[in-house]
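Hey, sorry to bother you again with one of my protein questions. There's a protein on my desk that I can't quite get my head around. No rush at all, and the record is pasted right below.
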Amino acid sequence: MNFIAFDFETTGGKNQRPCSLGITVIEDNQIVNEYYSLINPEIKISPSATKIHGITNKDVKDAPLFPVVWKEVISLFNKYGIAFAHNVSFDKKVLFDALLHYNLEFPKCLFLCSFRYCQDSYPNLPKHNLDYLCKFFNLNAKCTHNSLDDSRAVAKLILKMLDNESIFNAKACVCVPEVEGKEQEEDGVLPTLEYQKCDCIDFKDKSFVATGDLVEMSRSDLQQFIVSQGGKLKSGVSSKTDYLIVGLEDLTAVKDKQSAKSNKIKEAEELIAKGKPIKIIKGSDFLSIVKRCISDE
């Protein structure tokens, strides 16, 4: 398996910014490369943050700004297509906030969580923090709040988990559930309707709408991916909609319990009946396309 593991240390505070980045690169289940850089955040590092990671304002005074660092590493995110972090929602938010602040290009990759991966696979462990997991699995890894050390620890943790092939299908990994018809899943119900089989999509200038839960892909990840491919994710169905992506619906949230159709699905069907060429596709088919797009990068 090929992927990267990454970790940010930050300034702390409400509008925190990255002050260091560590990346560990995995090819064919082997560590092949590493990257580390301090980052000048252009704001002060809080004393409480310095107590955690040891980075001071003096340390980053002459460090490169984030745009310089990002120019050096975006190719790693794009090339390997999968980026793990421990509690990835934190590191991804730090990254996305920095990209938006500096108006930089977003990466073409999926962000996966080693914390959730281990939590799903070993729910009975008393803790799932990185330090505890590395000790539990007897990994030779430091968890010091140094971003390179922590990215290396995440990489070793994922490699350890991947030793067991059955664990590879944990929710934190990109897996596509095979769901046909209206079947009850843990996360909801797939609505009963006529879906269009879709093996590939030309994303450029196309308008997408999503309904239901895609399970393996959050709305923010979905929007990021579609935009990175040249498309647009809209909040509502209209005559300009090209694709409606249908995930699992919560029966408690839809009026039509029999078909499990959301309002967006019904609006799309009405427009299709009037001759609008809207394609309604399963979320699982869309996720398969996502994986192929990433593997082709």
User: Anything to note?
Assistant: The CA atoms of residues 100 and 209 lie 23 Å apart. The chain has two domains: 3-169, 184-296. The radius of gyration is 21 Å.
